[in-house]
Design brief:
With 219 residues, the protein is mainly alpha-helical. It has 8 helices and 4 strands. Helix 1 (7-15) runs antiparallel to helix 2 (27-44), helix 2 (27-44) packs across helix 3 and helix 2 packs antiparallel against helix 8 (201-216). The protein starts with 6 loop residues before the first helix and ends with a helix. 42% of the residues are buried.
């Protein structure tokens, strides 16, 4: 089932504490990474293009083929409505709808359960204990194979690792031989070496925007 998960859903699943259902990382970091994953979908589908190091709408008349209520659809709608905003503004504006979509997707797939209810829109008021432990283990295993064993990542795994790296979500990576030993692999993937080299300038521009938001938020 892990292949059926969106990148945003994978980020949230990895970030959740299995038992308490609370995020193990700063919610803003997690939500920005999920929002960036939605922005990547637009980049890959051709609805955004890179120009002078920044992302700009490519003038596509319709959003990408995406499920109604998905993070990609929310991002496409916001970009269409606010084409003059910066990628930083897009990421911040769509982070809550993107998180909602990720939680909803995990719930529909039976990988988490909702505990409590949101109060004044706060994510922290609802916990999502993990019920799909085998899926979580499989996802962690795939990351470990790349980071600790040197296995070449598929494109989705390369994007996931790079998003986690740029969002500073190192704590959600699988335990193993230590984060320090992962640095070289993380850097290689994040800089677009190996299989990740085909991701393109638009995707790297998204990573740059994400890094800038994280830095300006002092997280």
């Amino acid at each position: 089932m892990t292949e059926d998960l969106t990148i945003g859903e994978r980020i949230v699943l990895l970030a959740l504490d299995e038992e308490t259902g609370a995020l193990r990382e700063a919610p803003l970091r997690v939500s920005l990474a999920v929002s960036a994953a939605a922005l990547l979908e637009l980049s890959v589908s051709g609805h955004l293009t890179e120009r002078d190091g920044a992302l700009v709408p490519a003038g596509a008349p319709t959003p990408p083929d995406a499920d109604p209520g998905s993070a990609a659809e929310a991002m496409a709608e916001h970009v269409r409505s606010h084409p003059d905003e910066t990628p930083r503004e897009w990421l911040l504006a769509v982070r809550e709808p993107a998180m909602d979509a990720a939680y909803r997707g995990l719930l529909e797939k039976g990988l988490v359960r909702a505990q409590g209810r949101r109060v004044l829109g706060a994510f922290g008021s609802v916990k999502h204990p993990v019920t799909g432990l085998s899926e979580l283990a499989a996802l962690r295993g795939r990351l470990s194979a790349v980071l600790a064993e040197g296995q070449a990542p598929d494109e989705a795994t390369a994007v996931l690792i790079t998003l986690l790296h740029h969002a500073g979500l190192r704590a959600v990576l699988p335990d193993g031989s230590g984060a320090e030993s992962h640095d070289e692999v993380l850097t290689a993937i994040a800089e677009g070496q190996g299989q990740a080299a085909g991701l393109g300038d638009t995707i790297r521009a998204t990573f740059a925007a994400l890094t800038a938001v994280i830095a300006s938020s002092a997280l």
